[in-house]
Amino acid sequence: xxxxxxxxxxxxxxxxxxxxxxxxxxxxxxxxxxxxxxxxxxxxxxxxxxxxxxxxxxxxxxxxxxxxxxxxxxxxxxxxxxxxxxxxxxxxxxxxxxxxxxxxxxxxxxxxxxxxxxxxxxxxxxxxxxxxxxxxxxxxxxxxxxxxxxxxxxxxxxxxxxxxxxxxxxxxxxxxxxxxxxxxxxxxxxxxxxxxxxxxxxxxxxxxxxxxxxxxxxxxxxxxxxxxxxxxxxxxxxxxxxxxxxxxxxxxxxxxxxxxxxxxxxxxxxxxxxxxxxxxxxxxxxxxxxxxxxxxxxxxxxxxxxxxxxxxxxxxxxxxxxxxxxxxxxxxxxxxxxxxxxxxxxxxxxxxxxxxxxxxxxxxxxxx
Amino acid sequence: xxxxxxxxxxxxxxxxxxxxxxxxxxxxxxxxxxxxxxxxxxxxxxxxxxxxxxxxxxxxxxxxxxxxxxxxxxxxxxxxxxxxxxxxxxxxxxxxxxxxxxxxxxxxxxxxxxxxxxxxxxxxxxxxxxxxxxxxxxxxxxxxxxxxxxxxxxxxxxxxxxxxxxxxxxxxxxxxxxxxxxxxxxxxxxxxxxxxxxxxxxxxxxxxxxxxxxxxxxxxxxxxxxxxxxxxxxxxxxxxxxxxxxxxxxxxxxxxxxxxxxxxxxxxxxxxxxxxxxxxxxxxxxxxxxxxxxxxxxxxxxxxxxxxxxxxxxxxxxxxxxxxxxxxxxxxxxxxxxx
Lengths: 368, 339
Ligand SMILES: Cc1ncc(C[n+]2csc(CCOP(=O)(O)OP(=O)(O)O)c2C)c(N)n1
Prior knowledge:
The complex is a heterodimer of chains A (about 375) and B (about 350). Chain A is an alpha/beta fold and about 375 residues long. Chain A folds into 2 domains: about 15-330, Rossmann fold, CATH 3.40.50.970; about 335-368, no CATH class.
């Protein structure tokens, strides 16, 4: 039988610790994984979600104002991202898609660095080694194989570091993702596959990619899986900790399907009115990840007026720095397009660079 | 004649193809309710149903591989690849299967696939959304590779591609999707009225220099011809249209008239189509050439981030600079070409 905290949970079950009304529910298997999540700790999860939502809304506005070329909103997916990211150890390495800006924030990526790629000033917003998180993959699913390779490398190096890879429901159709699962199982790679099933691949509903719950797929590859309420930050934290524990312990890969909903457009160039049923969206609005934690924390007396003011001030502060950071991102120098194509000198490219420098000088432009 | 954008002209070409032949099926990501991310297939699923206009699960290799099976069964699949940078997962199916099946089966299996690919830069997109991968496909025997620069050609050539019994990779210049022009949708109704898909076309006549361009850069080359004529230089612009096979006869005839050749494309220079054209024309016209052919291309770098793309893309000034070079006029790069 495949491993889970105490035997295998029924696969169609949705792990939940906090229901949409903000009522705390007990889960026999996963409870121990959130035993420490009380008081200030819960409040900090709340703060992260509020800040992440604020950054996301701010970035969407920046795009509308012409400051960004594009932005992929994560509205509605805050719990899936914050809950999973907060389960990670500093040395665990993340291989994300383009939508994991909340994860990046939790990894310590400077907020304005989240914007570099979307503003078009560089192709990577941060140094992957500085925050243990790779540059987002735009080609769907490619990063899942990278995570498996990284994880196998960790095993070879004799460290108990895990790799975590994020991808969407649509991505589960790609060959790369299926190959990644085979490889992970073959090599018992310490990797966590974290699928955010937000119900959409641009305009295509999840039903086009999967006839059965996505979490059911992994056991066929020999990988234990769990389906979690992706709008429940506590449950996501718990199952991710469980999966990471397996990886750190040397028990191999785990697959998590976080069931959530993309409340906004796919990206700022998308028009969801063409394909989204407003009733479905409405239904999911009632499962908002922030509102439910807020209700719980209020009932617990943790979210006092004072604490709320503190969180709001923090969100304001981060958002203001984010906005200012965006407009201050430097314009790339003309010849910078030739930088870093190769790690070692390359005669052909060096020649093109000199030619272009001469050309730019001839038309009165400063090259560098 | 109707006035259409290039994107709408493609859509009307698809509509005609679907209406004319019930073996034509469209396949692609988000091409149904959304109408494609560029809305080229807007309304077609409503009109022709889910069996003819299929929203495909998210896997390019799967889409092309399944189209191979449909073609085996006698259908004429038209596959949309959402962006140039996402054709690579399907590369294996295209170059190893689609391109070779007719040859491998001694002609008994036809692969009348059309693979539509929005390509090229200039729209400020993020990475993987501005690639010019045409040379990979032009390098592959068994594939036809074409691109259009006007709404009329977009409409006509797409229908010709779908009607063609060979696989056609159809590159759509995405930054010209919103270019408007007159489109005659009856042009294929009688034989002989439309130019064959494989033929290049002289779009500006001139006597001093030939500029060969295709897809998104045809408009830029025409601008360069206008600018040069203000300085008394007469430029002929050839719109290549077909990248494989190349219509070298049309280019040769032009170069025999002008004696000078500038080739323009967005794709990186090394191993690009410019090299192939320069070599072939040098071979055919060596004694007619007054100067070595010059290339104005993207650089041998990955396509850069949006705010640096103006430094990568060939523009009017870089084209005129090359025109100066082939005319033997002093310019920035004089001397470089000799080295
Ligand atoms: C290989 C590839 N094909 C197509 C695309 C275009 N594309 C970008 S996002 C997307 C949908 C992805 O859906 P999903 O995997 O569910 O992730 P989500 O965006 O919903 O987070 C598509 C088709 C791409 N980026 N890469």
